[in-house]
Write a structure and sequence with these properties.
The structure is a homodimer. The first copy, chain A, is α+β, with helices and mostly antiparallel strands. Chain A has five helices and five strands; from the N terminus they run αααββαββαβ. Chain A folds into two domains: 41 residues, Arc Repressor Mutant, subunit A; 74 residues, Alpha-Beta Plaits. In chain A, strands 3-4-2-5 form a four-stranded antiparallel beta sheet. In chain A, helix 2 packs across helix 3. At the A-B interface, helix 1, strand 1, strand 2, helix 4 and strand 3 of A face helix 1, strand 1, strand 2, helix 4 and strand 3 of B. Chain A binds a DNA duplex through helix 3.
Chain lengths: 145, 145
DNA sequence: CATTCTTTGCGAAAATCTCGCAAGGATTTG
DNA sequence: CAAATCCTTGCGAGATTTTCGCAAAGAATG
């Protein structure tokens, strides 16, 4: 994609907040015509600047009321495990986010479950493996964004 | 909101993946008419089951290529600081996520910046405060989801 | 089994998006 | 510096999508 100008940035900013804004609403806020806005947004999507559009569903409704952040440390002797782990995490519905990080830990996971029982079972199933050296669970009390 | 049935769950599932599916496309996938699907989706939005719709913008294109996870520990003598901190974080564009957690740390932040220089400046500005006892920065090498 | 409440599909009307076109700027080229 | 080229704009028509009223089909209630 070519360069993005200030109009594009403004559009991205707005759509990141609310992707359902209509061409008219965008036009009003950025100072272009509706058609121009929509054309630009279309282009942003085609070129991959906007990767996708998603609905944010309240976790409560889904019954997943408990969130835990896990700091995971693996044994250092098997670096190939990293990719396997990553792929395994990708498939687990409880894992809503997975970051491979530098430093004392290897992964930071964000886990979403119904209750402590479910979390407990998850830990048992996933973390009690020989190549996992240590894991630290941080229960989330509240979140922003 | 009343109870959600299997149609609602299916719709949520689909819209979480792609919120731009049209009524017709939804209809085809869930086996209801276009109007029925749209009515249900409308209701899911009104009742807050769908909290919002957002465009996912490629961080690279946005020039925010660096992601850092920060484990933050505050001094224990001022619990009221928590709320202030939280609100402060909410306003910072670098902070894309903020979780208040139990355990040794108080907050887990996800920070998105352009480069090390910007991160460095952010740390200087935000974390070098007397009520912040310790912070640990984990640079993100790669992520899922 | 009648009543009431809810949800459906249909179809018309409203809103929104897409696209071709001519015009206005910006950039390049000679 | 002007001509040529390229890019983006606003407009407006046409296509697509969403909203909404309505009658009917299902469920739930008593």
């Amino acid at each position: 994609m070519a360069e993005l100008d200030k109009f594009d940035y403004r559009l991205l900013e707005l759509l990141q907040e609310n992707s359902r804004l209509t061409g008219g609403a965008l036009a009003e806020k950025v100072g272009l015509s509706s058609a121009a806005c929509l054309r630009r947004v279309q282009r942003l999507r085609e070129t991959g600047v906007i990767e996708r559009d998603v609905a944010v569903v309240s976790p409560k409704v889904f019954g997943k009321r408990m969130m835990v952040i896990v700091l995971l440390t693996m044994e250092r002797d098997r670096p190939d495990r990293y990719i396997l782990m990553r792929d395994a995490f990708a498939k687990m519905p409880e894992v809503v986010q997975c970051h491979h990080v530098t430093g004392a830990h290897d992964f930071v996971l964000r886990i979403q479950v119904s209750d402590m029982e479910e979390y407990s079972a998850f830990v048992e199933r996933v973390f009690h493996e020989p190549y996992i050296k240590r894991y630290e669970s941080l229960a989330v009390l509240g979140s922003l964004k």
